[in-house]
Amino acid sequence: MIAWIIALSLMVIQVLNLCTILVMIFRRRDEPIYIIAWTMIMTFIPFIGFLLYLLFGHGPIIKEKRTFLDAIEEQYYQQAVDSQLEMMDSVSTIQSSYMSLIKFNLNYNRSILTRRNTLEYFSDANDKYERLLSDIEQAQDTINVLYFIIRGDESGKALIKALAKKAREGVKVRLVYDDGGSFMTPSSVFKPLKEAGGIVVKHYPAKFKIFTLNWNYRNHRKIVVIDGTIAYLGGMNIGDEYLSKNPKFTPWRDAHLRVKGGIVQLLQLRFFKDYAAVIEDISDLNEVESNIERYFRSVSLDEDETFMQLVCDGPDQKTDHMRAAYIKLIMTAKKSIWIQSPYFIPDSEFLHVLKIAAHSGIDVKIMIPVIPDNHFVHRTTTSYIKELLEAGIEVYFYEGFLHSKIIIIDQEMATVGSVNMDVRSFSINFELAAFIYNDTMAKQLVEQFKLDQKDCRRLDFEYEKSKSWFMKAEESVYRLLSMLM
Predict the structure, then answer these.
(1) Which is the catalytic residue, given 254, 405, 422, 452?
(2) What architecture is domain 68-83+115-304?
(3) Which spans are transmembrane here (predicted)?
(4) Looking at the DSSP assignment, which residues form a beta bridge with residue 231?
(5) Cβ atoms 114, 267 nearer than 8 A
(6) Which segments of 121-195 does DSSP mark as H helices, in order?
(7) Of 123, 243, 281, 322, which sits with the fewest C-beta atoms within 10 Å of its C-beta?
């Protein structure tokens, strides 16, 4: 009897595996390497492999919510199509070599070029937190906040306290946090803000529901918009570790921006679209629709002449906006490509264009942290070092935890955002990045990169020789799995 039960169970598992593979081939039409990898996993560990696919391989179930925000987005885009291409041709402050990148982002990513922007760059979270709390204290009307991680520590409580104070004063406060990134944060942390009248919602609660598996698809963006005139974006979440208070991740290096100008409207729009996707009661959105001028302020002519584009991507998009934008960005380089990222797990095409650039004589530097916050991810990252070195790419280990997510091209333009150089950021998470066409900001990032180099170890082939057989085995296995998760 037991033998029959076991045989029947194995048969059911094999049928499930076969059906899953057929769905990948004929329904989803995934990449061949993706199908082969999942087939291997479900063959060697049948039941566990099937469960892993349900958790990590199944695409997100996203309910489309058509709102007035779509009309605003379309209006912005049409205005850009009608006027911005002509405007770019008459602007002398942007290098001509970046015109094709700007047009690509506009046409492929629907990323609008904003003209007047004032930027403030933070490499240290202490400075960013102080500035953010000061801006929150001075808020008069509205505060919209979205973070991947909000810890229940001193930093998280300080933010909630500041937001609750403004909510009691009559400021409209909305807070969205990712339930996966903030999984260990007790809901009681947000209680003071709720009691003060603020709105607090989770982005895709991390629940396991068969055929509604959004657990793997997290909102990795960091957005704060204050009074519709000041905004923040970049790599810093809210937690004591970002302040180098966790000895394991000290020193902590990061990159974040405070912005004013045209880009703020786009960040406000992005916040509300993410907010609309996860709220159940749309009455608050009706208030926004009735008071558009309250949230989408006109741009002051006093702002700097800094051009920016906001590129957003996520599993709700049908195209790979971020990956394509970064590949196009790298292809525009003529002299140098400098990258900082906590994780470097590129797909074959992204890695290929970097190698082509290096073999073409372009100075390619990649800086990653020596301290791992995730063993799986760090070991996968180190699996690429030999290939990078063989292509003539300089690789640096930052002696601390490097969380900065930037690309600097020719020391003339740069990107700052939430995007890691890995498959997860390119294909799975909800992300955003600012493309900054301003050599002053680029040079500021260059100077910070050079300062960071003083705290780095430059890797060579001796590093590869020092790897144990077990480390190399880990790299091989993790690299295969990284393409799936």
Answers:
(1) 405
(2) 2-Layer Sandwich (3.30)
(3) 6-26, 33-56
(4) 225, 259
(5) no
(6) 125-137, 154-168, 191-195
(7) 281
Of 166, 172, 403, 422, catalytic: 403
Residue 483: is its pLDDT beyond 80? Answer: no
Active-site residue (options: 203, 220, 256, 378)? 220
- Catalytic annotation present for 334: no
- Inter-CA distances, 462 with 345, 368, 383, 386, 400, Å: 22, 18, 14, 10, 21
Q: For the chain, report the end-to-end CA distance as a whole number of angstroms.
A: 39
171-180, 192-201, 339-348, 366-375: range with lowest mean pLDDT: 366-375
Cα separation, 237 vs 241, whole angstroms: 9
pLDDT of residue 106 exceeding 60: yes
Active site residue 405: yes
CATH topology of 68-83+115-304 equal to that of 321-482? yes
Active site residue 222: yes
pTM for this entry: 0.89
- Contacts by 472-481, CB closer than 8 A, 24 or more apart: 474/379, 475/379, 475/380, 475/382, 475/383, 476/383, 478/376, 478/379, 478/380, 478/383, 479/345, 479/380, 479/383, 480/37, 481/37, 481/376
- The catalytically annotated residue of 254, 274, 410, 452 is 410
Given a cut of 60, whether residue 295 has pLDDT beyond it is yes
The CATH number fitting domain 321-482, selected from 2.40.110.10, 3.30.870.10, 3.40.50.1000, 3.40.1190.20:
3.30.870.10
* pLDDT confidence of residue 33: 61
User: What local confidence, expressed as pLDDT, does residue 319 receive?
Assistant: 67
Q: Write down the catalytic residue from 227, 254, 422, 452.
A: 227
Q: Is 227 a catalytic residue?
A: yes
CA distance 420 to 342: 7
Q: List pLDDT tens digits, range 365-417.
A: 999 999 888 888 888 888 899 999 999 999 999 999 999 999 999 999 999 99
| pLDDT confidence tier of residue 183, bands split at 50, 70 and 90 | confident
